Every structure is written in C-alpha cells, then in structure tokens.
C-alpha cells in the first residue's frame, strides 16, 4: 500500500511513497528525494519554479488543471538538449529527461497529470527521449515557445490536455520516428499550430478540438540541418473538430507567431510530404486566413521536396466534412492519383472534385 507523506527532509522515501507538496515547498526536492517510481502529489494552489523529472516510473500529479498551477520561480538545472526553435537560455516548466546510461539518456514510464503550467519562457512541458510518457489533464498556457513538446520519444499518450498561446505548437511530437502515440481529446487554441506532428510516425490524433490557431493541425516531413532523419508515415487523424483557425503565422520577426517559418494562416489540416496518413471523419469548417498564406485552403496535401522532404503519397481522405472555409476547402497540389479520396463532403476544391459528394450549393 502506498504511504502518504508531506515533504520532510528526514522521512524515508520509497518507490511506493506518495509525497505531498504544499505551495511554498520545493517540488524539485520532492522529485529528487523520491527517486525512481515515486509519486509526487502537488496540493491545490500555486507552486513556483520549474521542475525536472530525471527518474523512471515517476508520477507528478496535481489536483487538476486550473487548481494546481506551476509558474516560473527558482530554476532547476537539467542536462536536456536545447529546446528546438528557442534561445539557449529559456526555461521550460516541466522537463522530462534522464541520464540513465542504460537507456542512452532516456527514461521510461513517466506520468504528469492534473495541473496547469503557465508563463515559462520555453515550453510548458518538454519531454526528450522518454519511452512511456503520459500527459493527462495538463494545461500549458502562455508558455513562450511551445505548449507540450515531446521529442525523440515513444509510447506516448497526450489526453484531455490544453495547449494555448505558444509561438509554435500547443501540442507537438518532434522526431519521434516510432512514436506509437495517441493524442486524443485535447484542445489547442491561440498557437501557430494546434497539433504539430513534426517528422514523427505511427501517431493517432483523435477527437481533438483545434481552433483559433494559424493552422489547426500540421503534419510535416522536412529535413533540418543537424537534426535526425525525418518522415511522417502511418498516422491516423480522425474525428477531430478543426474550426475557425484565422491567426497569421510566419515571417522575419523572431518574436512573431511561428517565427522564421513560412507565412501560414487559415489552415485546418495540412499534410506536407506525408506518406500513408489517413484523414477520417474530421469536421473542418470556418477556417479563413487572417494574413497571407502559402497554403490557401483548409485541408492541404502538398509536397515538402523543396524543403528536403518528399511528395505526399498514399494518403487517404475519407468521410470528412470540409465546408465553409475560405478561399478553398481542399487543395491537393501533388499527384491526386496517389491519394485515396472517398465519401467526403467538400465545398470548393482544387482539383474541382476530390470527393464523391459535393457540399450543397456547389454542384
């Protein structure tokens, strides 16, 4: 049976101990002393300072998003690699990264649950080389660079989370070549990209709500200098509601939304250089650009060859409702015969017909 303890310098800590941390006490001290397998329970209230989870089997649990809040304060150092697309001195709210030589710098079976991470200069949560990661009921709000950012990891679950107000993505999988990920029942709003699958494969993106971003969902195969080999393959994007994404991202201003990227606005779901990605039963509506966009449609299937990637091939677009977007509902700029298109309800598209059924009033 687990033993409940408050944070106590003298109390023994074992793997089945639940360590309770009150506001004003050190969350990092509890994690360090708890070690592998510990559960650290954060009481309701505001906790100050970033934290680093460096041991396997750890659970960091709050009283619920909006009830337990982590904000900037004392900085806990970490050996995690620099955060992508960020200055070197940024601080992320929760870092999950270990130094276990048996797992090549990675750790496993870590859970973060029931809390809000707000106002950090890096990411709300930054997980790197984790095998077995669970983010549940985690709210990342107004963190400068990323919301929930998971890199080079596998066996990932992100559920019932919220990513809001970050320069890049609310939720991102980056360079997870065998992600085996489920990203489900989340909400993303006010970011450059709601959900970003960046050079990651074997992901299921299900029942999410993405609105008020520049692009609701972006799946991108692109080669970056000095980064691992990319590719986006064998993913399922199903039952999502992607609507009213109207922000403008990209440009030369280093502090702008989607800084250094190409101009994007009004995009619902984009498949760029992907292979064997299925879009099934998604509702994509009300997306329209609030600025210039290289992707003038709500659903875009295009090549990334000019960025070192590849043409989009063998993707499926089935049983989706894609209507009421501007200027186009769907634009496919690669070989349409290399995609599977069936049973969609679509308004205005390029080519003219990408579906067996057109929306009312467009025939």
Q: What does the model show?
A:
The protein has one helix at about 25-35; strands at about 5, 15-20, 40, 45-50, 50-55, 60, 70, 95, 105-120, 125-130, 130-140, 145-150, 155-160, 160-165, 170-175, 180-185, 185-190, 195-200, 205, 210, 215-220, 235-240, 240-245, 250, 265, 265-270, 275-280, 285, 300, 315-320, 320-325, 330, 340, 345, 350, 355-360. The chain has one helix and 36 strands. It has about 375 residues and is mainly β. The model is unreliable at about 10-15 (pLDDT under 50). It has one domain (about 50-360): 3 Solenoid (Pectate Lyase C-like), CATH 2.160.20.10. The strands form three sheets. The protein has a 23-stranded parallel β-sheet that branches. This is Nitrous oxide reductase family maturation protein NosD. InterPro entries: Beta_helix (IPR039448), PbH1 (IPR006626), Pectin_lyas_fold (IPR012334), Pectin_lyase_fold/virulence (IPR011050).
């Amino acid at each position: 049976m687990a033993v409940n303890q408050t944070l106590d310098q003298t109390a023994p800590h074992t793997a089945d101990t639940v360590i309770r941390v009150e506001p004003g006490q050190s969350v990092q001290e509890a994690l360090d002393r708890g070690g592998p397998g510990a559960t650290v329970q954060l009481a309701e209230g505001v906790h100050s300072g970033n934290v680093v989870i460096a041991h396997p089997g750890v659970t960091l649990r709050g009283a619920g998003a909006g009830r337990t809040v982590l904000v900037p304060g004392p900085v806990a150092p970490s050996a995690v690699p620099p955060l992508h697309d960020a200055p070197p001195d940024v601080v992320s709210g929760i870092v999950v990264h270990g130094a276990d030589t048996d797992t090549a710098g990675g750790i496993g079976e870590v859970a973060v649950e029931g809390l809000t991470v707000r106002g950090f200069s890096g990411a709300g949560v930054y997980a790197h080389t984790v095998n077995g990661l669970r983010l549940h009921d985690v709210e990342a709000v107004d963190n400068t660079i990323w919301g929930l950012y998971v890199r080079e990891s596998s066996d990932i679950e992100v559920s019932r989370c919220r990513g809001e107000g970050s320069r890049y993505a609310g939720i991102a999988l980056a360079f997870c070549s065998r992600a085996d990920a489920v990203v489900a029942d989340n909400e993303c709003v006010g970011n450059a990209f709601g959900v970003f699958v960046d050079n990651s494969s074997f992901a299921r993106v299900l029942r999410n709500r993405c609105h008020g971003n520049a692009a609701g969902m972006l799946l991108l195969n692109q080669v970056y200098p000095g980064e691992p080999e990319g590719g986006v393959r064998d993913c399922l994007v199903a039952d999502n509601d992607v609507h009213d994404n109207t922000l403008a991202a990209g440009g030369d201003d280093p502090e702008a939304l989607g800084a250094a990227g190409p101009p994007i606005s009004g995009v619902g779901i984009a498949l760029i250089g992907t292979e064997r990605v299925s879009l099934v039963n998604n509702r994509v509506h009300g997306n329209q650009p609030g600025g210039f966009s290289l992707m003038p449609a709500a659903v875009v299937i295009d090549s990334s060859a000019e960025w070192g990637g590849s043409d989009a091939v063998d993707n499926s677009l089935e049983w989706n409702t894609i209507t009421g977007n501007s200027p186009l509902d769907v634009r496919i700029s690669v070989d349409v015969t290399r995609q599977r298109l069936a049973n969609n309800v679509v308004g205005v598209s390029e080519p003219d017909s990408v579906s067996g059924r057109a929306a009312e009033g467009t025939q």
